[in-house]
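Quick one: examine the sequence and fold tokens given here and explain what the tokens say about the fold. Here goes:
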Amino acid sequence: MRWRTFLFYNALGGGVWVTAAVLVGYLLGEGVDFLEWWMGRTSLLLLGLVAVGLGFYFAHRWSTTHRSWLTESPDHEQRGQQNDETSE
């Protein structure tokens, strides 16, 4: 691509971006307080969802690595010892 063509379209794209940014700022400028309140609530909700997701993830990882410990009954060793003693 020739540099003059590139320069033309680059300047045109920059102008479109500046126009869009100014229009969004103008249209949302009066609702900044509402936007700040809404973004604060949304951030807290997102943080809570991430925390719950991480909790489930770590609980799953822990349960898969400790599966044998979780499936054993508490008196499993005692019953095994009693069976050994009676078989002798």
